[in-house]
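Structure tokens please, single chain.
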Amino acid sequence: MKTGYLQRLRKMTVILMAGCISIFSSNFSGVASAHTTLVSSSPSNGQVLSSWPSELVLTFAEDLQTLSSQEINFVTVTNAQGKQVSGSTSVSKNVTTTTLLANDVQGIVLVNYRVAAQDGHIVEGELTFTYGKSSEVTPNSSPSATVVAHQEAKSHTAIYATTTVLIVLALLFGLWIYKRD
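Here you go.
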């Protein structure tokens, strides 16, 4: 009876380890594969401008996905009073060009983007530039988007760490069972 119990326990351990490895692989496949990143922008992040630009250009490391009848890549530009000053966005390979509406509000300008990379993964981010004198910056919007992104990054790190610990424990348990016999 003891031998049958150990065989069932070994099978369960193998199944548990296979499941953990499967979860581990799916969690880290997004981290291991190269997703596109923002390479440059015009105006650039942190730049101070004395005149309002007519467009915003974002350049990514890889081509972006486009669908002829649907918008899947979004760029939103908000002035220091929280008003949207972005017009339409066009995509050509790895470059998005967003027309900017007239703006006379000086201060920090927030750019949020959400684009679909060729591999299907959604990439989100933000950058800022300043229109007018940098000493006159009076942003009216809160940095909640940055806080949320930071909390999501912490959450993903916790999931990866927990998964890693579970896999290591499962492997150690399997070795303990194997050596015990």
